[in-house]
Design brief:
By secondary structure, the protein is mainly α. It is rod-shaped. The protein starts with 14 loop residues before the first helix and ends in a 20-residue tail after the last helix. The protein has one domain (15-292, 315-349). It has helices spanning 15-73, 75-96, 103-123, 132-145, 150-184, 190-200, 202-205, 215-225, 227-230, 233-251, 256-261, 263-276, 278-289, 314-336, 344-348. Helix 1 packs across helix 6, helix 3 packs across helix 4 (132-145) and helix 5 runs antiparallel to helix 12. It has 15 helices and no strands. Its main location: membrane.
């Protein structure tokens, strides 16, 4: 009653043993593909982690620099500005990690929140009644009167270019893991598992436990079994090229590190622009939002002088060098894996599975 290992000679196998063999080849194939995938997956996961760690440290650095701008140069609004600054960097982080948001919406939301503070603490420091309605009117007016000039738009442009490449790389790395995981658990067809049993276990039914499959026979069986996986070859090569393009984009003009650390300067320039145009802004706001309550004797805003930017710290330089090094190391490794899916059958037939340097091997029917 054997279905797979039929042979003219007497056999020590049963139908139940054949079923056990089928379960064994399915398990072994998954394990051997997992072993092949391990190094590649480990490299991608390692790079995702390294990329996110370096990125988080750069974000923290840029956020601290931006916060220090308010604490040193614009102290009257530093406490209230802390939340909008935090929100801006959270939005940037979420964008890079693939959230459904845009750099433009994050930056403009920040400047919407910033304008009521700049207006009431720097341009008109005597305002005491900053009601919810008045604050909301200032937020909405910001979009029409553009108090920060070209600086808000420039910030969107600069960040969009550099963060786009980072976002795409982050998504591409996650996609790579998804592809590898899917190929690991690709189900074997009934024909494939039968062919594998015939190749690996049918000799056992004849008592030939030490005979291994012939190399050519193994390659034929594996190529048949993994036809759907090896079809990924063209797309995988294209994927590697895309990774290369994205890492080059990040390292070139769209430099993530420079863009993030430039946020502080952009905000500083934007606030200075608003202060310089204070009288015109006040006249427009009074028409649109009305006049708020003033404290007796206006406080002068002349004493608020922005300090010069702090010099770049050693920590930032180290993070920058480390990220560039990791990018290069990663892409060089990935380029070597271009033929990963094209050569998967060859690598599965390598090693202990087949008989090498021997005069006898199993061809699926007999010992040759």
């Amino acid at each position: 009653d054997l279905q797979i290992c039929q042979h003219r000679a007497p056999t020590c196998c049963t139908k139940k043993m054949e079923e056990s063999y089928q379960a064994a080849v399915r398990r072994e194939r998954t394990q051997s593909i997992q072993a092949l995938n391990f190094e590649l997956k480990y490299m991608i996961v390692g790079h995702i982690t390294a990329f996110q760690e370096a990125f988080e440290s750069l974000l923290r650095f840029a956020e601290n620099r931006t916060s220090s701008l308010f604490e040193t140069a614009y102290r009257p609004m530093a406490k209230e500005a802390a939340e909008p600054v935090k929100e801006l960097f959270t939005d940037i982080s979420l964008y890079i990690l693939g959230a459904e948001t845009t750099v433009e919406s994050a930056v403009l939301r920040f400047f919407d929140s910033l304008f009521p503070l700049v207006y009431s603490r720097l341009i008109n420091p005597g305002i005491t009644d900053l009601s919810e309605d008045y604050t909301e009117c200032l937020r909405l007016t910001r979009q029409d009167i553009n108090p920060f000039g070209r600086y808000s738009k420039n910030m969107v442009t600069e960040l969009s270019k550099s963060l786009w490449a980072s976002r795409m790389l982050s998504q591409a790395l996650s996609l790579g893991i998804e592809v590898i995981n899917t190929t690991e658990h690709a189900a074997l067809t009934k024909e494939c598992s039968r062919a594998l049993v015939k190749m690996q276990y049918c000799p056992h039914c004849q008592g030939l436990t030490l005979i291994r499959p012939c190399v050519g026979y193994c390659l034929n069986v594996m190529r048949g079994c993994l036809a759907s996986v090896s079809e990924l070859d063209a797309q995988w090569r294209e994927y590697i090229s895309t990774l290369e393009y994205l890492t080059n984009e990040m390292a070139a003009s769209h430099d993530l590190e420079i863009a993030l650390t430039g946020i502080r300067n952009s905000i500083n320039e934007a606030i200075l622009h608003a202060q310089l145009n204070g009288p015109q802004l006040s006249a427009t706001v009074d028409k649109v939002c009305g006049q708020p309550k003033q404290q007796e004797g206006n406080l002068s805003s002349d004493n608020i002088v922005p300090v010069k930017e702090a010099t770049e710290t050693q920590a930032f330089v180290m993070a920058h060098v480390s990220l560039n090094h990791k990018r290069r190391e990663f892409i060089n490794y990935m380029k070597r894996s271009r033929t990963f899916y094209a050569s998967i059958a060859e690598r599965l037939c390598d090693g202990d599975l087949v008989m090498r340097d021997s005069s006898t091997c199993w061809n699926g029917e007999d010992v040759v």
